[in-house]
Design goal:
Elements (H helix, E strand, L loop, with lengths): L5 H14 L4 H17 L5 H7 L4 H8 L9
Length: 73
């Protein structure tokens, strides 16, 4: 059984970084670590969060750094 609450945690942090106009390198580095931590807790809604940020290359890279990719097929 997975952990869906990671969606709220991830999106809250990602939104805060975006609203603070954090540089892309800071967003990517920070969110890469957040994603890794959430995955250790059996996060199972990664793709739901990724879908919300497909227009943000830094966030997409953070997911890719953790082997999470959006299937465009």
């Amino acid at each position: 059984m997975g952990w869906g609450s990671g969606y709220l945690i991830f999106n809250t942090v990602a939104d805060a970084l975006t609203e603070a106009e954090a540089p892309d390198d800071l967003k990517e580095k920070t969110l890469t670590k957040v994603i890794a931590g959430l995955q250790q807790e059996d996060w199972d809604t990664e793709l739901d969060s990724l879908q919300d940020y497909l227009d943000d290359p830094a966030i997409v890279r953070a997911f890719a750094n953790n082997d999470i990719h959006w299937d465009t097929d």
